[in-house]
Task: inverse folding
């Protein structure tokens, strides 16, 4: 599956990204990590093994976009609007539903936002900017 920088992600490419993202060690590293270039370099290499040729920046951008779209749909569903949908919602729900920061942000502000998980208190998290 050859893909250039300007090409849209195919369904197979997104499925491959989700399969790598769903691995426990990847989820753990992504959760609460602000400086995550190394993780996305690793994800890009794993995707290449699966036949998906994307660089780390493309992987990070797709990760962020999927996460934002998921939170938008999740908020709509929680607000009673079941008309909003997305293709990989259930897959993303299985991956993201255990992120406590998303729930905390929703409770504090009354809405879900695309905030990066910055409130994690694990000793490996770099919260300084």
Result:
């Amino acid at each position: 599956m050859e893909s250039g920088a300007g090409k849209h992600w195919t369904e197979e490419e997104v499925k491959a990204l989700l399969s790598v993202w769903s691995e426990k060690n990847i989820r753990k590293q992504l959760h609460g990590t602000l400086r995550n270039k190394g993780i996305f370099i690793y994800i890009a290499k794993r995707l290449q093994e699966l036949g998906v040729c994307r660089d780390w920046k493309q992987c990070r951008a797709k990760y962020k976009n999927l996460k934002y779209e998921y939170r938008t749909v999740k908020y709509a569903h929680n607000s009673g609007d079941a008309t909003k949908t997305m293709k990989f919602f259930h897959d993303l729900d299985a991956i993201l539903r255990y992120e406590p920061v998303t729930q905390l942000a929703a409770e504090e502000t009354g809405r879900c936002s695309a905030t990066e998980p910055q409130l994690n208190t694990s000793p490996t998290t770099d919260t300084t900017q």
In short: The helical segments are 11-21, 24-30, 37-49, 56-78, 89-96, 100-109. Residues 100-129 have pLDDT under 50 and may be disordered. The radius of gyration is 15 Å. The CA atoms of residues 32 and 121 lie 8 Å apart.
